[in-house]
Amino acid sequence: MSCITCNSTTTPTMKDFQSKNIFTWCTNCGNYGIHTAIRRALVSKKISACNTLTCFDIGCNGNGSDKIGGYNFHGLHGRSIPLAVGAEMANRKITVIAFGGDGGTLGEGIGHLVHAVRGNYNITFVLHNNLNYGLTKGQASVTTKKNMKMNSSPDGTNSELLHPARFVLSLESTFVARSFSGDVKHMSKVFEQALDHKGFSFVEILQSCPTYNKETPHEWYMDRVYDVETIDGYDNSNRELALKTAQDQEERIAIGVLYQDKKSVPQIDRQLNRNGAMGTKIETEPYEETRQYDISKLLEKFR
């Protein structure tokens, strides 16, 4: 894909998405794998850094906002989704990816998630689910398991957790996938499929947190995850099957594209008032849509 700003047709490379800034995540944090996988997916899909906008939440995931090439925006806690939606609606020639943690997304920002799914905006959203608020030193989050001891709840949590995949599937979503931060190859493949999807792509990453979540370390997931592609005859166009398959989060945890509506129509293409609109070539706003109107009758009223 040629760059929309410089018209370069150079094939993107991993180097284009590198940064001179030093990573500040804990040793063995799942963010390293996620960061690598999203860059691999963009290069594989031949999406240049100039054509990419990444939007980050506050939290451990947000510490990657200045460590990837392309256009980046480090937004407010729980607010990366509306930021990404606004950018995509303003300029549909760029690829927009939003990142958020389980705390900010399913706590403070859950309303934004609901309406982004409902609107089916054409962005990819990556949920970093490490079952806690890592940046605030191990607070329990919406996805922390019941009775799981955390720094802010040493006696264990007493609330039921929210099941992200089941929740989003219940909202009539058009793309729901899951992967594991310890498998870069699998994440890259899932991200590629999410980037190809027309509409809101929800990708939950089961992420290890070596510092604050001792209950589900890297090895715990390694022993439990399996790809839905290994299920004989699995149909990811069947929402009920996806709900059933995604249910288990303890013994056999399904990853891969759980559900996809390949007939999905993104929000912008649902706007009937855009029919007949013309694209202009104004340099400052190259993708503005215009329409000609006869205002002579209106002007008569002011004579």
Characterization of the model:
The chain has 303 residues and is α/β, with parallel strands linked by helices. Helices cover 26% and strands 17% of the residues. α8 links the parallel β9 and β10. The chain is globular, with a radius of gyration of 21 Å. About 2% of the residues have low confidence.
Structure described in brief:
Strand 7 (175-180), helix 6 and strand 8 form a beta-alpha-beta unit.
Layout of strands and helices, then pairs:
Blueprint: H1 31-44, E1 52-56, E2 71-74, H2 80-90, E3 95-101, H3 102-108, H4 110-119, E4 124-129, E5 132-133, E6 139-140, H5 164-169, E7 175-180, H6 184-196, E8 201-206, H7 218-222, E9 225-227, H8 239-246, E10 253-260, E11 278-279, E12 289-290, H9 296-300
Parallel strand pairs: 1-2, 1-3, 3-4, 4-8, 7-8, 9-10
Antiparallel strand pairs: 5-6, 7-10, 11-12
Mean pLDDT: 90
> What general form does the structure show?
globular
- H/E topology pattern: HEEHEHHEEEHEHEHEHEEEH
Poorly predicted runs of 5 or more residues? 280-284
Tally of structural domains: 1
What structural category do the secondary elements indicate? alpha/beta
> What fold name stands as the CATH topology?
Rossmann fold
Q: Strand order, biggest sheet?
A: 2-1-3-4-8-7-10-9
DSSP helical segment count? 9
**Beta-strand residue percentage:** 15-25%
In CATH, what is the class?
Alpha Beta
Alpha carbon gyration radius = 21 Å
What about the largest sheet?
Answer: 8 strands, mixed
Key features of this structure:
303 residues; alpha/beta; two-stranded antiparallel ribbon; 9 helices; 17% strand
